[in-house]
Specification:
heterodimer; A: mainly alpha; MetI-like fold; 11 helices; B: about 300 residues; two-stranded antiparallel sheet; about 5% strand
């Protein structure tokens, strides 16, 4: 009975993995297909990848995506790390409220956050002339949804640390500044890195928030892909998507390695 | 040491200095979220009571018109369009969550039963799609389900659909893609619970003569409940507010709350009404959150 039972489980699991990977596989396969429109396989080619190099729109979008992800991740990691640290350390009045405020963005549908920021930016623009829609507004928007994730990761990392290490540093005569930079920060660094990578991937992948807070000239890769899908799929989009999949794969493995080192 | 000093993590420090440090670390995040999260939500809430002026401008008179229209009582008499969209989104969100649970349970048990090196591999294989752009995984289903694809041919051969029909666009395509896109959100928390499962409870139930269903219901399910709840929430929330998946894979008949919001803030240019729809979407999401967490109180989900 046990063996038929587990054979059944293996079969279902295999099907589910196939189901999870079918869309990724089809995009990768079609990025190497000679056929422009057909659904059948007509031979292997690199031509769609070469075409990407001449596609100024795609290159521009890639540059915007990276600039946006790097800027927003740096800001969100700094603010989120500080918040995660503060939440795990200080019992202050209003801590419960702040803790809830910090986690709430995770549960708010991204489209609601997107249109609320769109409204906010346009009202400020009318009053003060600030926040012309573009990369800057997108950075503000991305930082907003990134902060909670960084803070959650950093906070959980700090929760697992032994307080005796800091106490020992103080007992040995280190002042607060020295204790933080020589003891606490190195210990929380794996959490900060993992939180930062998480924020970075979230920014790279985001479509909805970017779509509503972008302006002319600040098209990112997900926006470009969406527009192309709406117009009609072409193989160079598959090539672009395959490259993006590759980047997220590398990022995933980096995070996995960081977390394993953090645990060790 | 003055009388106000206290020991905080091995360091003698005054209350005042401690407050300064707390403010310095928590302050920036607090201010940021008030400014770019709470205030914008407040603006949405306020905007939903204003009216649409000429050419998509926003007008002063305060009104409940937007909510009346959402409830089906528009200017032109009863129109169930928005109540249907609301209902459809809720069904899509909870339906996707239940389908993901059905598919996620065997996968979580499968991974938990593997030996250590394979377990890591199997888990990573679930995480990779999780990190792969949702837009890409979504548009791929257009190809997988389009006319002429082998899945469509199989469906035609099985007489599920007629020879001239396709599986996309439509409700089926939306559900299939939803489950595929959100399955990792279910499997990861489920696995975390299944991994800690105490099998002796299930064995005891079996020894006491329980059948398979009873063993699962009373010996296993209570133990993995935190994972089930977390998974349901993680799937339900993004699924309910989805606009990309219905937009790319559904037809006009599968419009969801997300599509309605996008319509009003995009081509429709009715920001007050769009705000009302957004606020209702937020309410649906928070209602779902409350519904799923109600039973378990805060013992399992310290984040809520």
């Amino acid at each position: 009975m046990v063996s038929t039972h587990s054979r059944w489980l293996y079969g279902v699991a295999a099907l589910l993995y196939a189901f999870l990977y079918a869309p990724i596989a089809v995009v990768i396969v079609f990025s190497f297909n000679t056929s422009r429109h057909g659904l059948g396989w007509q031979g292997f080619t690199w031509q769609w990848y070469r075409a990407l190099l001449d596609n100024s729109q795609a290159l521009e979008a890639a540059k915007n995506t990276l600039a946006l992800a790097i800027c927003s991740t740096l800001i969100a990691t700094a603010i989120g790390t500080a918040a995660g640290f503060g939440l795990s350390r200080y019992e202050i009045p209003g801590r419960r409220f702040f803790s809830r405020l910090l986690y709430l963005p995770v549960f708010v549908p991204d489209i609601v956050m997107a249109v609320s920021l769109l409204l906010f930016f346009s009202i400020i623009r009318q009053w003060l002339g600030l926040f012309q829609l573009g990369l800057t507004t997108m950075i503000f928007a991305h930082v907003t949804f990134q902060i909670p994730f960084v803070a959650i990761v950093v906070r959980s990392r700090l929760a697992g640390l032994d307080p005796a290490l800091e106490e020992a540093a103080h007992d040995l005569g280190a002042n607060a500044w020295q204790t933080f930079w020589r003891v606490t920060f190195p210990l929380m660094l794996p959490g900060v890195m993992a939180g930062g990578m998480l924020a970075f991937t979230l920014s790279l992948d985001d479509f909805v928030v970017s779509f509503f807070t972008s302006g002319p000239g600040s098209t990112t890769l997900p926006i470009l892909i969406y527009a192309s899908v709406k117009r009609g799929l072409t193989p160079d989009i598959h090539a672009l998507s395959t490259l993006i999949v590759l980047v997220s794969l590398l990022a995933t493995l980096t995070v996995a390695l960081l977390q394993r080192r953090g645990r060790a | 040491m003055t009388s106000q000093s206290q020991i905080h993590r091995g360091e003698a420090i005054t209350r005042g200095r401690l407050s300064i440090r707390a403010a310095a670390s928590l302050g920036p995040g607090f201010i940021w979220l008030i400014l770019f999260f709470l205030i914008p939500l407040g603006i949405i809430a306020a905007m939903s009571f204003l009216s649409r002026g000429e050419d998509g401008t926003v007008d002063r008179p305060l009104t409940l018109e937007n909510y009346r229209r959402l409830a089906g009582f528009g200017l032109l008499g009863f129109d169930p369009l928005y109540p249907i969209i609301l209902f459809r989104s809720f069904v899509l969100g909870s339906g996707t969550a239940m389908l993901c649970l059905t598919a996620g349970l065997p996968l979580a048990f499968f991974i938990a039963k593997l030996s250590k090196p394979f377990k890591q591999l199997a888990l990573t294989l679930v995480v990779i799609p999780f990190w792969t752009n949702l837009l890409i995984r979504t548009y791929a289903w257009q190809m997988l389900l389009g006319p002429g694809s082998w899945i469509t041919q199989l469906a035609v051969w099985l007489r599920v659909i007629g020879p001239d029909e396709a599986l996309y666009p439509g409700t089926f395509a939306v559900y299939l893609c939803m489950v595929c896109d959100f399955l990792p959100f279910m499997v990861l928390p489920l696995y975390a619970s299944v991994e800690k499962l105490d099998w002796s409870m299930a064995e005891a139930a079996m020894d006491l003569g329980a059948n398979r269903f009873q063993v699962f219901r009373h010996g296993v399910l209570p133990q993995i409940q935190p994972g089930v709840i977390a998974g349901l929430i993680l799937v339900f929330l993004p699924a309910t507010g989805q606009f990309v998946i219905p937009d790319l894979l559904g037809g006009a008949k599968t419009a969801m709350l997300g599509n309605a919001i996008q319509q009003q803030f995009g081509p429709g240019l009715d920001w007050p009404f769009g705000s009302a729809v957004a606020l209702v979407s937020l309410a649906v999401a928070l209602a779902g959150l409350w519904l799923f967490t109600r039973k378990t109180a805060d013992q399992n989900l310290e984040i809520v």
